[in-house]
Design a protein that fits this description.
Helix content is 56%, strand content 9%. The chain is α/β, with parallel strands linked by helices.
Length: 446
């Protein structure tokens, strides 16, 4: 049977080498599996990863196996009971699992099992799962970025939890950038009287198998912290230790960062989490409602999702508000009671988007004056921001092209069309621009 599976692997690798290396190379044929019976079982290290393999590559695997066998073969996917690989230098695990988890900084509920996957985060989710379940460090570091409340932190914690499942003795630590800075500054402050504190700090953050740090943009202008964090990279990455970072800003747009640190942070894989689409928003509402025991009718979830479009946190807050309102008022969850519970939220989100508000937000975002939006200036940064503002005006309002052009200093509709086409084309290939547009859309709608 080992020869049979080897031929299957060769066929799969020849069909799609990238997919094979990333997802299929570690699969093994379960002992006793016989293709002549019409069914075999493949095993992998993690249940969550096996679900992704079955979902995304199951048909490809079945086709390859059936071709090698010469007849149709059904594939079953199963996680191995005992992971074969764990990081070296494994200390004894803590006796109290809750205390052990608390030391890592991971939040118990932020796992892959309760993360809602959709088009907006599909790539980021797949990358996070692969980093968490790979037997070796890949995409190092993994840099996850996106607007506020879109699930970056959840993904980061989920990586930590999954990694610990596979490697129970691994040294894992998850912190916010602010916490890291505070601890570093405290160690520096007391260095003269207590030099051991700096040694303890360095040991705490450099002797890890997996380091997860949230909101890395907070390191801007912090020269000392950046220098220290650079040493973390030099101690971990070359030795195959995984680093995961999150940020609300595209990495190459981070301001006041050392060039050498930016270079290190972008040497792995950068993935974006975008605002959730309608179907995903409905799914998030149902999942949150289920987790707190709230029966949320489908039509109600759809109405909420139509009104609240910005981020996951806003949707989860709405469910909590509905639960509290209906619980204390002893009212059933209906469209009418939900409109009452969320009347202030709906009112805030129904404020119309105007041409002027878009111009104001874009100008603020790019550190320009609102007057630059209507000026005749052709300076590159001003012209680009103006085109972005025109694009957003067409996307987010019902105003006609002549009306939009007029609001930009009396420009004609052809100028607006040109700007919209130019930004539409550029956003498909410019990741930084796509991020800017997502953030601006969030800010304008809020």
């Amino acid at each position: 049977m080992s020869d049979f599976w080897k031929r299957c692997q060769e066929r799969l690798a020849s069909e799609n080498r990238a997919v094979y290396d990333s997802w299929l190379a570690e699969l093994t044929l379960e002992e006793g599996s016989d293709p002549d019976s019409g069914q075999i079982t493949l095993t992998g290290a993690a249940a969550s990863k096996m679900r992704e393999v079955q979902k995304n590559h199951g048909e490809m695997i079945a086709a390859a196996v059936s071709a090698v066998a010469g007849h149709p073969v059904e594939i079953l996917f199963r996680a191995r009971k005992n992971p074969a690989q764990t990081p070296a230098a494994a200390p004894e695990p803590a006796q109290d699992p809750a205390e052990d988890l608390a030391r890592t900084g991971l939040l118990p509920k932020l796992t892959f099992d309760n993360f809602v996957e959709g088009k907006a985060n599909q790539f980021a989710y797949a990358a996070a799962l692969q980093v968490a379940t790979s037997p070796r460090a890949i995409y190092n570091p993994l840099f996850i970025y996106g607007g506020v409340g879109l699930g970056k932190t959840h993904l980061m914690h989920a990586i930590g939890h999954e990694f610990r499942k596979l490697h129970p003795h691994a040294r894992v630590r998850c912190v916010s950038a602010q916490q890291y800075m505070q601890e570093f500054m405290e160690a520096v402050r007391q260095k003269a009287e207590h030099p051991e504190l700096m040694r303890q700090f360095e040991a705490k953050y450099q002797d890890l198998d997996l380091f997860l740090i949230d909101d890395i943009q907070s390191f801007g202008k912090r020269e000392g912290t950046q220098t220290n964090f650079f040493l973390v990279f030099e101690n971990m990455v070359p030795h195959g230790k995984q680093i995961v970072l999150t940020s609300d800003t595209y990495p190459k747009s981070l301001k006041d960062f050392q060039e050498r640190l930016l270079s290190r942070m972008t040497q792995g894989l950068t993935v974006e989490v975008e605002p959730p689409e309608l179907e995903m928003r409905v799914q998030i509402l149902h999942q949150k409602a289920k987790s707190i025991g709230l029966d949320l009718p489908e039509e109600v979830a759809e109405v909420i999702a139509e009104h609240l479009k910005s981020n996951v946190r806003e949707l989860e807050g709405a469910v909590q508000q509905i639960y509290a309102f209906t619980h204390f008022s002893k009212m059933p969850v209906t469209l009418e009671s939900v409109k009452l519970a969320l009347r202030d939220v709906f009112r805030q989100n129904s404020v119309p988007v105007t041409l002027e508000s878009i111009q104001q937000r874009v100008a603020e975002y790019y550190n320009l004056k609102q007057a630059d939006m209507t000026s005749k200036s052709r300076i590159a940064p001003v012209a680009k921001a103006r085109q972005i503002a025109m694009y957003l005006c067409k996307e987010l309002t019902q105003k006609s092209l002549p009306e939009i052009g007029k609001s930009f200093g009396g420009r004609d509709h052809a100028t607006v069309i040109h700007a919209h086409k130019k930004i539409t084309a550029e956003r498909t290939r410019d990741e930084a621009l796509r991020h800017d547009l997502n953030v601006l859309t969030q800010r304008i709608k809020n």
